[in-house]
Amino acid sequence: SLLIGAALALCLPSHKLTGHIANYKPLRFALDIVGIAGVMCLIWMFGQVNQYETFLYRGGMVIQCIATTAIIAAAVHPSTWIGRMLGFRPLRWLGVRSYGIYIWHYPILVLTFSATAAENLSILQIIIQLAAVLVIAAVSWRFVEKPIRYKVNKGIGKTNRRSKDVSGSIGG
To answer: What are the residue ranges spanned by the domains of the chain?
Structure first.
């Protein structure tokens, strides 16, 4: 999967992702078809394949990676249908905080309800867990990830001017 993603990055570098494709309808249509096929493949796999099937270990995971790569290839271009759909504001909010959601979901699930009760969770308990994950991921984004990512000069993300100058001078 890493090699397939790296191949996509080589074939479709970000500096070539401009709106000019909007004027070339066959290419935009082809990207939309590739993306839709990837979405359909993943939906089928989510519904029909479980982690114990031999299909996964005899090419199924490669198919899943290729389908995901097809979706990404279509989604990264701003003029495609999938790119516009994934640009929907609530999905962007989730995407920005997805790492925090990934990091925090398991501790929250483990700490909120016992393992024996996990099979019999009510809808209310699931909503409480989901809300807790989203709130903690949002707080984590605001006060930890964002300052580090954007090097905000407040608190945890404070940058050192001297270290910036030294690292910038390395290699010419």
So the answer is: 1-87, 89-163
